[in-house]
Records
---
Amino acid sequence: MTLNVAVMPKNTARHLARYRDDWHHLAEHQEGYMSGADAHHELRRAAWEEFERIGFPVHRRGNELWKYTDLRQVDRIDFRFGDWDRHVDLARIAELVPMPEEWSNLVFVNGSLEHSSGDAPLTRIQACDWVGELADYRSNGFVALATAFLRIRGGSYLQFDRPREYVRPVHIIHVIDGSVGGPIVDNPRVAVEMGDGSRATLIESHVSLTDDVHMTLPVVEIKMGEGAELSHYRYQDNSEKSFHFATTRVLQEANSNYRSTSFSVGSDIGRNDVFTHLVGEYAESTLHGVYLTTNRQHQDNEISTTHAAPHCTSDQYYKGVLSGRSRAVFSGKITVERGAQKTDANQKDLNLLLSHGAEVDTKPSLEIYADDVKCAHGATAGHVDEDTLFYLQSRGVDYHTAQAMLIRGFAAEILSEFEDNELHAFLENQLDELMPALQAASDTIGTA
Amino acid sequence: MTTQDRLTISRESKLDDAGYKWGFSTDVEMELAPKGLSPDIVRLISEKKDEPDWMLEWRLKAFEYWSKLQREDAEPRWAKLRYPDIDYQDIYYYAAPKSFDDAPKSLDEVDPEMLETFDKLGIPLHERERLAGVAVDAVFDSVSVATTYADQLEERGIIFCSFTEAVQNHPELVQKYLGSVVPYTDNFFAALNSAVFSDGSFAYVPPGVRCPIELMTYFRINTEGSGQFERTLIVADEGAYVSYLEGCTAPIRRTSQLHAAVVELVALDRGEIKYSTIQNWYPGTKDGQGGVYNFVTKRGITERDAKISWTQVETGSAITWKYPSVILRGDNSVGEFYSVALANNYQQADTGTKMIHIGKNTKSTIVSKGISAGHGENTYRGGVKILPGAENATNHTQCDSLLVGDQCGAHTVPYIEVRNPTARLEHEASTSKVSDEQLFYLMSRGISEEDAHHMIITGWSRNVIKELPFEFALEAGQLLKVSLEGAVG
């Protein structure tokens, strides 16, 4: 008796030969990029072989994970991996992201650490012996490709190993400078080890110095020890011509508390794939985010939590503002495994659609195998409330201002969770700067 | 080509029937076509029914399409269901009570044993049951055996008959609407059904007519190893109204039986169709042996100001794969879906609905209640699609799951696709168990634990049950109780 198993369509990468050349070239000739001798080379090789086998998930039929995201244009582009020359201009980078002195700032340009300040407990990724343990390169072409090209010099391994609070937020800034030539790929890798009882704040920023086509494949793996607490803020504002496929994997031991808050505005196609695995009792996982899209942008949020132990709490809450002909996807999943009793899980995705032509696809799903649980989910979509708009107008607020107020108010709920004052002020400012573009591409509702 | 394998079905050996009281089988002489599927079988079915050429051609096209899907291994596997591969060549595609070779003119000519079967089912086929006020079309192993009240309905211009009769007597209507909602290219099981469907019900309500009684079809699979492939087509013409009931049962069989039906509803301008189902196919034994594999495609189209409402109580079948849907094509049209699905023992249900909003001001409501018990797996899978032209469309979805015991599963997979900013969409869902406080309260009043559970579950399902016509609502409540027996305590 054979049981039916979903047949995964075979995918390929159009420029597989080119990636293969790059891979062999870098492995054999660029000792500074990757070395055949270092501890991670077997992982690279295995990931490369996997990528050769599965390529990019271009064929979506029957592939639930990529149902709403078309990758054909990504596959068409002849991206290059390499060890590029860099012209680091810190002043320009400081215009793109906040870098206050109170933070530990780590600036990576095209994958190499170019500047650091503060006292982040940072070592090279090479020193981490569990890279790839959480982010499985199998079954995901982007993780496979990123892992195959794992750099020696790039990457961050952060060890918050003391049971204390690390007061200074660690800010990892990944900058892409496309002026070095051809469409380039960057694959920043981060491994975070939160020791038992440690507390820290991590800020992860992704920005582009040039407005051209490039691709970023960040892979972040986080191990949360017992009672550890991490606030993870994520800011993504890559070039609007770029592609951003991010993977975050978190393993949570008992009583740990992981809070992720993301703000995504950049890239042509952006994907934020987060998975938290609650393996210890009383662990808490909070995954919140706001995405703002306009023009023809596409933002895909793949947010998943698995409860493998009892008494855990999880909360997924995403909000989207869509304008122009943009499209956003929320694919949330909560799995409660057999025996994970007393689970309390929430999942919500709310969307503000500002224009005809914009599209939101939301799929908040639950998979539950335990009976003594509380799980709820919800989703909404619609334009700004016409009555509220009218109310504001009747009080003398002009249409444009009123609409902006409502958009700001909608996003504010998530924005307020960026608790660092400096970061919060910066993001509010980003929202204000984006507002004209959002509004220009919006429909008029009621009377303007 | 001639039929072979004439045989008499005898009573089944005793199986653990998990309290399934509709599990008797009937000794009726059956006429069976050889097992397996081929163009010849399709031709045989068509010939048996004395069908016109266009009908045969349609079937053959469907067969060809299905064969193509079969070759491409395109049998859908995305549902959260696990079952052994189905051997489509090991199924009887045509099983008919033999005594109908010379079609009965009236109920007097109907095999008494069959009449008894329907009596056992509580289906009023006799004239004396006229007071029941329900017109019934009884389908036995895919063949319609009797339709009551046909004359009275005819006076109002309402057509209610078996599909076979409709093809003979109203070919223009059948040709116009058959496949208009569910084309044979729709999916694997719809293609299979289109090729081999043997009978089903047809109803047509003319413009402005409100059908005064409920129309009802009762389906029963009897022959072992046979598939049931019936097809239902209901058309409410402009301003017409009809309420339609469907009930299903099957005898207890050790092997699994395949049921792949297609239901098409057409509600023209201002038309309204209310479609209620109590699905109680044999669910298999307590340890998951046998049971009906239920793969059903149900869909309706609403034109301007029309309304289609699906209500279903799903307690039977080992495997349920069913998504009654509405394509809201006309402006201001309404689609509704109310469902209670229960999966006990080793039952698996993957069911839900699709609401596709095309017209302006279209409105849809989804209320789904899933109950999982024993080792049951219950999945709500729903789609709400708002197309760009659907100005001011609204949808409200509520889907709740209840888990009884810690070995079952409850899953919710909604797909919400919005392409118009004026749409208003809300989706809410919750998962819970029967609360200890409520149980304690009832038990402190002297109510047994089992009754208390039943009361709470019935109350929890009330929003759906109340949408059923009265007689059906009573049956549904009883069915839930029987189906849950043994799951509590």
---
Amino acid sequence: MKHVIYRNLTSQILRLGFILLLTFSTSLNAQEGDPANGKSLFNANCAACHKLNKPMTGPALANVEQRLYEEEGLDREWLNKWIRNSSALIKSGDAYANKIYNEWNQVAMNAFPQLSDQDISDILAYTAAPPPAPAPVETGAEVMVQEPGISNDLILGALAVLFALLALALILVKRTLNRFAEAKGIEAVIEEKRIPIWKAFVQNQFLVLVSVIFLLLASGYFAYGYFMQIGIDQGYEPVQPIHYSHRIHAGENGIDCKYCHSSARVSKHSGIPSLNICMNCHKAIGEVAEATQQEGIKEFGVDYNAEIQKLYEAVGWDGTGYTGETQPVKWIRIHNLPDFAYFNHSQHVSVAGLECQTCHGPVEEMEIMYQHSPLTMGWCINCHRETNVKVKDNGYYTKIHEQLSKKYGVEQLTAAQMGGLECGKCHY
Amino acid sequence: MSSNKKYWKSVEELNENSSIVETLQQNEFVEEIPTDEFLGDKESLESSSTSRRDFLKYVGFSTAAASLAACEGPVIKSIPYVVQPTEIIPGVANFYATTIADGYDFASILVKTREGRPIKIENNTDASTNGMANARVHASILGLYDNLRVKAPMKGDTEISWDTFMSETSMALNQLKDGKQIVLLTQTLASPSTHKLISEFSDKYGNVRHVTYDAVSESATLDAYQAKYGKRGMANYDFSKAKTIVSIGADFIGDWQGGGFESGYAKGRVPENGKMSRHIQFESNMSLSGANADKRVPLKPSEQKLALAKLYSYVTGNSVGGAKLSENLDAAIKVAAKELSNAGSNAVVVTGIQDVNAQTVVLEINEYLKSKAFDPKTTIMTRQGNSSEVEQLIADMKAGQVGAIITYGVNPMYTMPNASDFAEGLNKTDLSVAFSMKQDETSTNCQYIAATPHFLESWGDFEMKSGHYSMMQPTIRPLFDTKQFQEVLLAWNGNASSYRDYIKEVWTANILNGESFNKAVQDGFFVSSSIDESESEDNTDETLETPSAKAGMALASSAKVGEMELSLYTKVGMGDGQQANNPWLQEFPDPITRTSWDNYLTVSKSDADRLGLVNENVANGGLNGSYANVTVNGVTVSNVPVIIQPGQAKGSVGLSFGYGRTSGLKAEMQTGVNAYPLYQNFNAVQNVTISKAEGMHEFACVQLHNTLMGRGDIIRETTLEIFNTKDKEYWNAVPKVSKDHIETPVTSPDVDLWDSFDRSIGHHFNLSIDLNACTGCGACVIACHAENNVPVVGKTEMRRSRDMHWLRIDRYYSSQDSFEGDNEKKDNISGLSSSLSEFGEMENPADNPQVAFQPVMCQHCNHAPCETVCPVAATAHGRQGQNHMAYNRCVGTRYCANNCPYKVRRFNWFLYNKNDEFDYYMNDDLGRMVLNPDVTVRSRGVMEKCSFCIQKTQKTILDAKRDGREVRDGEFQTACSAACGNGAMVFGDINDKDSEIAALKVDKRAYHLLEHVGTKPNVVYQTKVRNTAKA
């Protein structure tokens, strides 16, 4: 009856193990984690795939240790193994490891052998009780901002009332004085009737001529100004299908322009980023911080989280994976050069090393992108006249720059001297 | 001496009393603007209901409306990818190596794609298996965006799904299994994998027959080669190795034996160390080869056979008998034979006569000479058609023995001489399937049309020459619901793998020999290291010992002279006609006749006079010609327009294939007459009767447009002898002008009106055009079309001399006598005096002129006459030597065109895009996909011209700047120089002293066009040298 013995043995081992486990877990529990350090470790290592309260690439991790212990009876040791090398655990045939692996589309979790026991306990401490979010600070600031606004209005109102009272007082004084004068019998001197000024103006032909000329010139000036700005869409700020804030991305988060507009380096087009570029980050960022969300609603009337959902819809992301149902975004193009003007981004970005802001303005401050520069030929030409060609460490320019600067007798050549004003450089 | 020759472009110019030529010389824009007609008619002016006041009102209103409308810009959307493919960067072009193989043209090419759209075809210079891409190959990209393509499989007139198509056809094929014949009628495939697929297909269905059909047959050549070397193919020729070339009726610069020989030929034509090849051409039609020959002898097709037989006898010493040649011809043949014998193994003989004996004789002569240029071991496989099998097939079809016919890449209802027999047979089959891109003549008569993709959407593999493999890969996803022939074959065979995998399997097993498949796909070609050479060795030795005269005798006796003989030929622009719906090719002026949008009967002057056929130029410079009815064995093609062709052999006429199509092409492209009904028994030479028909035909012929304007010294040429013995001043002198009674060269700054501009810093672009290497093939014209978004204007506008080609190839005729006087005397000495009187007759200009080609584009003059007259400074000079044209600045005064001495400026008389009046490729969204996004599409009312492909030079410069390096020699290219497979056009920076162009600029052959005008052009030409002296 061998197997009976074995059964006994197994149950004994199990029992022993249970006791061991209990002691071990208590000892582990005694090892207190630091949730603050845990947060930074979590953000650095885990946040790409995990969130606390929402499933992402991997499951939600809030209270993971407690949950695992209560639901599956797995302890810290199992967690350590899993975190340091999940694939080894899967291979070893561990039942729960395999279950999890299959549940999450067989995407193996990265191995983190570098995390020490203390690190892991810090992280787990964070997942068990995340430190409270810092209290919003804007309230105070908002009050501060609002105060002078109110007082300005008040002062203006008070001033207006004051002026009205003064005017009333003056009228009253005049009337009283007149009455006094009447009472005393003093007659007001009646002046000789003069020709009204407009009649005099009409009679003076020279004046009429001069003013007509002046009017014509003035209207000509304004008409010219008006017509010249036709087709120049400086300040063009169309409503885009997704409210995309350059202020947050390029400004607050400091993302390099060319991270998204990567083709500006090598191509004539700067390129509108494809949605997969957005998903590099937005796979993990499904919603913005509460403070940012409030700011968006109050200042710009936009629900940032809803905008991110629009992106998910377009790219076909259901929170855990791609559905394959995509809906390309029809952005409205802001910078429109006419077809007969050739412009190459890489020439300006890679070769000349210009900052994007030189032409596109303070994009990092723009909540909604608008056209900063006029994009007229005069504007291009001016810049070519004033800007020196960046020749340093560029083998192409070495010879031509040496010869040309000698010819023109200058240290630094402008783009214009290099031939940047020739018609055919942009029109072909 | 170059200057005392008289050049003429048209027969009309030889007529001293012609007022038209005079008019054309005086007027740049020949068509008067009909102001008199409008303003001079007082009655109609008065009766007009629009008063001056009304007119002003309308003007005011429309101005106001237009300015109001302009205030609001359109909203432009920009839609990025959802997931951007890693290999695509918007704005950066990708190149893919692939292969064109449409059954007529075979070439390894590079395809330039932008944002996933193929936009241009370029030469794959690494793979020179079958020469470089010709004009048709360059133009073939437009076929991809043809709006009339079949967009899904069809049953009759209705579109069906591929599932329905597959289930229905499979069922029908299964019913025929081992019953009546299943016939695959295909183009020349030359594809190892497809041949394997067909054999598997035939294993599965039993009674399967594969018939290969070439619309223009090389069957006789194939038969002769097969009889001699045991393999169905054609011998390879490398003309760069030949010092003496004798061609009897072979247009080897054109489409002879599959084409692809011109690059080798051009190499040998450039004089190097005082030597160049000598080319003697015997032919009846004026072909490209004849135009390039040093000596051209016009003779009737029947005389060609006899001439070849005699040549054989003179070279080998065997007597062949047969009729006697006329005295002068016999003398010419004797001279040719003597030159061949002298050159020995450096000589080569080719012929285009479609006769097994003629082809055998040529193989024998070349073997006898041990010609180095002749390579029978490398078999050319690009023609495989078998005429007798095709005839057998039609007989079987008519007899009802064929159960199913499946056609692929062929259009027999159009190309067969007995198309009605084919149609009759087609009705007797149970199943007929046409694999076609078009609802063409054949596919509309079949039960099913299997919509096939364009070659740029397909996979494929080819063996053009034995051991030389090439690969076709898709460069774009199929635009329509199409399936390749091979994919369907795989499905019929029950093979589930994709065609690409199938090719990979075949290549890995049989071809690659362990090399990488991906590398072969990337390169587009693969040359097998183990080319089997043993087989043909024995044959060569055997025949060398006994040059049997059997074939020669048979050839001599078969030469039967007809009164009028017709030679059917193919035009460089149209080929066999499968690209007839291609507006670029329709508008391409034929290099010889300079006529576009037509085919025509070429007739010699004396025959035309005899038959009463005339050509005349009307007031606007347009050419009109009589109509003729052409009858062969009772089959008449009526109303064939006639062109009087200088150099056409008396008693012979020529007519080209490829025109007169009626199905599957736009109404504008339905031009010309169909010559295939005259192609009886697949014989290109026929005895004909010609009668004049009523009416006059209006040609779109550009030969009288942009005339020399009385400037004689436009092209320079000399003979090899003078070139070798005399100083440059003698044959390529710089023109001189008198300053203070001192002769001063025009290049001297003393006689220049302008101060010269310092161009020594930076790049200075120059283009050299070698008139010796230029064969006039026209590949550059089409490449320029594709690169620069040049519009197609259509036949009527072409006729009005409003063609838009930025690059034209001028063709000049000249009579030999003016500078051949010396040579004639030499002929006297060499003992051929008796024949000279007859020779003299042939010197009559229009009978047998010398031909010279000169490509002309904007010369980018450093002292440009156009720039000084532009009132708005729309055209200005760049430091890099390019003459810039700012379209957005141009107001269309056309003053620049008037002032241009080279007549290279083109005016947009209309809006040629998105305009229903010009329904070519720029009028639909599909066709506009071919446009180059880097070049502006011009609008109505502006002038345009060659830009030296500034978009390409700018890109090269930018690439160098980004890499931080100097530009290497050979990196700068224009579309034309890149397309020129002959090396005639070399582009580059002359400030780079080590560059090829810098050397060419100061070459002793170098000259500028109309140098005496003093425009200092940046295009430099190399004097044409003719090897007219006897070897």
